[in-house]
Amino acid sequence: MRQTLTFTFLLFLVHSTYGQQYLFARYTPKDGLINARTRFFYQDSRGRLYISTYGGLSVYDGSRFINYTTDNGLITSLVNDIVEMGDDSLWVVPNGPAIHCLVHGVLKDIHTADNFYPVINQLIRCSDGYCYAIADQGLFRYEHNRFVHLPLQDGQGRPVSRFINQAIESNGQLLILTDPYLGAWPGPGALLLYHLKTHRVSVSEKDQFFRHMVRTPDGDILVATPSGVRRIDPEALQQGSIHLLHLSAPYKAADDLDSHFLYFDNHNSLWLTTDGGLLKLDTTGAQQVFTATNGLPAGLITTLLQDREDNMWFANDRNGIVKLPNRQIASYPHPLPGFTVNDLCTSGDSDSVWLYDNSQHTLLLMQDNYRQLFRPAGPIPGNGRFYIGPTSYMVAGNSLYALHFLRDHRFSLSLIFRDSTFQQGSGLFDKRGDLILVSDKIMVIPSGRTTPIHRPRQYPLPYLCDQAALDSRGRVWAITRSNQLLVFNITPTDTAAPLHLLATYSKGLPGGSARSIAVDTTGRVWMGTRDHGLYCLSFDDLRFMSWKHLTTANGLSENFISYLQCDNDNTVWACTPAGLDRIRFENGRFTIDDLTHSYDNYQGVYKIQSTRKEVHWALVVEGLMKIGPSPRKSREYHPHILLSEIRADNSPAPIPDRKTLSLPYDHNTIAFHVGATSFIDETQTRYSYLLEGSSNPDWSPPADEATIRFINLPPGKYTLRVKARFLAGDYPDLAADYPFVILPPWWQTWWFRTAALASLAALAFLSIRIYIHRRLLRQRLDLESQQAIEKERTRIATDMHDELGAGLSRIKFLSETIGIKKQQQLPIEEEITGIRRYSHEMIDKMGEIVWALNQRNDSLSDLLSYTRSYAAEYLLQAGIECQVEAPPEIPSCFVSGEFRRNVYLTIKEALHNIVKHAQAEQVCIRTIVHPDKLLLITIEDDGIGFDRDTIRPFANGLNNMQRRIGSLGGSLHIHGGSGTTIRISVPL
Predict the structure, then answer these.
(1) What whole-number distance in Å separates Cα of residue 719 and Cα of residue 723?
(2) Distance between CA atoms of 47 and 309, rounded to whole angstroms?
(3) Average pLDDT, stretch 811-829?
(4) What is the 3-state secondary structure (H, E, C) of 109-134?
(5) DSSP letters along 427-495, please?
(6) pLDDT tens for each residue of 921-962
(7) Is 396 exposed, middle or buried (0-12, 13-18, 19+ CB in 10 A)?
(8) CATH architecture of the domain formed by 39-111
(9) Are 681 and 594 in contact (CB under 8 A)?
């Protein structure tokens, strides 16, 4: 029965506001929301909106949704609570044994001291400084980085249900609500009162069932029950008990409503969710109902949130999230059943609006909740346009009628004037109540005239005019489609010529085929065109000064401006086939508010009129639109430009916290996702950027794209400067800077360049050093070569002197002796024999010298062959048997002339000593070439042996042998005994 009464009450409220449609903005997975089934909202200190869904967590920054699921680190897809812990740092409480934190957009895990996590439904920070967890396992207090369980027992020691899901603190006590669907004693949907200091627990009565709690602006606590909304008695709470009271004004209407969720907005209005829709009760007791009938999307509203800009957000269990922006806008497709609006008219000195249904020829008067229908008392021409003022008129085709209101809410028409050339245009009343009509001429109908006019006061126009406007001095401005602007002054006393042309403008005016005109209170003339948007013309009295141009690039809904209106607040309203724009000129700049596109309400707007209370009524394709007074701007809230995500080469990059982001050189294709946390109308936020450090010094044109991309940036230091401009003028422009660095590759780093320069310097130094060393070596080798040549020359000269000089001296001596003996006639055969012998010796020595000098003999095999040949021949002549042992293969090895000569002469000296002193009969010569480049020569004889003590004094033979082998770096050893063994070792 209670539920039936609730539905009946809601339907009554809906019927009392018949035809009113609220313009909601919806966000679903098509817009980026992670899941259409939403649970609750949270808004952080920077303005981001957090939406918990059944498929994960979505974060909305005003430009895009950033989603977190189990793939991004959530332990479950359900998030039960969000608590802000610091600057851009939040705890995310999932529906599972874990706690996450979201820091600068990165989801991490919170680790407790004992790794225990209850399944928390709510985290609440209380006045005792502790944070309490309302969990499935009961009540916990967070202290020393762990959750400490607090047993809940009533006065009789009975444990209270573990399944609790909501709590509110009141004067040092926690009011705790158990799960409405789960729990043991005292049962589901029960209220517990827990004293934070004494830990005493009180329990509500058994027959009471509670769904939700909310704190009122006055500090009281309201609870939702199936019987209606109740207030908890604060005096009973002080006594430790729970007692319910009925509601009083202004929220008394909720006393009988079965509600699921309660919420107080920033203006102390109470919102209630029911199965039938939403109910709002303001502080005056006025009621506002939102159901599917007046535009609320289908589905159960689970929770509500009013953001810092006073936008209302509704979480829907199947249609995503719904926003009711902070704008007093409503739509009336049919103000009354069957009534279709074709024309409207208001008066600036009243709060009423007149509507006309052209098919039924009926007039409807609306004022607040009052509606009165007027029906015709006679035939009515079709396609009429009404002008209701001090005297009311109707224009249909080329005819003008006076409108007369009769009794019983009826009206009639009387013909005033008919002109065969008159084409239906638009009209307006001046301050005197005269009706001014424009078409291909301008016509003035005096106020109060209801009788026929034979010669109307009119002035021909050079071309068709669609609209005229009045300035603050009562002058009439008319613009033709040929872009001729005319200004008239009306003189009522001059009945012959009441219209006086003051000025005409054609040259210097912008083009575009004008269709509409308005004049604001400062004297600026606004000209709407067919294809080129809106122009603002500046005048010094009647002297044309300059103009400004506004198009869709500046935020207009379309460039075809069909109708213009300027209200008392100096706001210009522009009607287009695509929507309605509100234009202001403040602080030297234009602001444009597209009022229809933000609601996805793309329809043409034909006309707009204003009332005394600045309520604006617009004639649209689908009926009527009501725009209330502009809400007061919140001076406390200021949106932020936020860097929501950075992707480098399509991989997420960390968002720096007051630090410069560093990226490797191969991650130089970067996308910055920014957002401005204003949700009044996100579509009218424009972003522009400048990249300092790049080759482009200009700001980008403002655009609605909030993703900034850079491709293949070279290494270097950069600063991304971002501006956000709000076309509607709700806030001043915002700016933010984001420095980042693209690191150079290792071969372009300073340390590599330093090392490379050092290496080049070292290489240059080494090259110079090697060059100098080689040059010095070459000089030394040349010097050594010269010294070797000199030495060789000296040696040759010495050898020739020693070896040949003595023989020549002997031959000379023997020759002189022969001459003396011939004079004395003595025998000379002995001297001739000596000369012959010495000559042979000199020839042999000369051959040895030549052999040593010949470069063709510079090989080891030539040395050994020559030595072996000499030894065999010399010993054979001495009658000694010679045995020579040599390796079968002698390596090809170079030996110098000095080497050959010293080795050869040493062996020769050894053989000479054997022949002269050893009395040997057999000699064995062994030659071995060691792999270590060592020449080993052994000479053995079977003579009488060798004794060093018997060597003649001043004998030089052995010394010469030692000296020759020593000069080659070798060694010579002589062993005596039954024979003599000479071992020669010389390095090759």
Answers:
(1) 13
(2) 10
(3) 78
(4) ECCCCCCCCCCEEEEEECCCCCEEEE
(5) EEE-TT--EEEESSEEEEE-TT--S--SS-EEEE-SS-EEEEEE-TTS-EEEEETT--EEEEEE-TT-S
(6) 899 999 988 877 888 999 999 888 877 666 666 567 788 888
(7) middle
(8) Beta Barrel (2.40)
(9) yes
CA–CA separation, 627 vs 615, rounded Å? Answer: 6
Pairing, β 410-418 against β 370-376: parallel
How does DSSP classify residue 57? E
Q: Which two tokens stand for residue 732?
A: 């001043």
Q: Exposure pattern of 188-198 as b/e (b: 16+ CB <10 Å)? A: bbbbbbbebee
Confidence at residue 8, expressed as pLDDT on a 0 to 100 scale: 47
User: 509 falls in which pLDDT band (50, 70, 90)?
Assistant: confident
Q: Phi and psi (nearest 5°) for 577?
A: -65, -10
DSSP 410-432: EEEEEEEEE-TT----EEEE-TT
Cross-strand bridge partners of residue 686:
725
Cβ(939)–Cβ(923) under 8 Å?
Answer: yes
Neighbours of 640 (CB within 10 A): 17
> Can you point out the beta strands (E) in 483-640?
485-490, 499-505, 514-519, 525-529, 534-540, 543-550, 563-566, 572-576, 579-586, 589-594, 605-610, 616-620, 623-627
Bridge partners of 986, per DSSP, are: 935
CATH fold of 332-627: Methylamine Dehydrogenase; Chain H (2.130.10)
Of the options 1.10.287.990, 3.30.565.10, 3.40.50.720, 3.40.47.10, the CATH number for the domain spanning 859-988:
3.30.565.10
Tokens representing 364 are 């409807």
Q: How far apart are CA 914 and CA 919, in angstroms?
A: 7
CATH second-level architecture of 641-745?
A: Sandwich (2.60)
Q: For residue 918, give the DSSP letter.
A: I
Please work out, in degrees rounded to the nearest 5, the angle formed at the alpha carbon of residue 43 by the alpha carbons of 42 and 44.
Answer: 120
DSSP conformation letters of 617-677: EEEETTEEEEE-PPPPPPSS----EEEEEEEETTEEEPPPSSS-EEE-TT---EEEEEEE-
Instruction: Tell me whether the CATH fold assigned to 2-38+115-324 matches the one assigned to 641-745.
Output: no
Report the range of poorest mean pLDDT among 185-189, 401-405, 712-716: 185-189
Q: How far is the C-alpha of 929 from the C-alpha of 927, rounded, in Å? A: 7
User: Rounded to whole angstroms, how far apart are CA atoms 859 and 865?
Assistant: 10
What's the CA gap between 327 and 311, in Å, rounded? 8
Residue 113 in tokens: 């001291």
Query: What backbone phi and psi angles, to 5 degrees, belong to 649?
Result: 50, 45
Q: How far apart are CA 331 and CA 602, in angstroms?
A: 13
> In whole angstroms, what is the distance from residue 685 CA to residue 681 CA?
8
Domain boundaries, the chain: 2-38+115-324, 39-111, 332-627, 641-745, 749-853, 859-988
Token pair belonging to 177: 């609500």
Q: Which residues pair with 573 in a beta bridge?
A: 565, 582
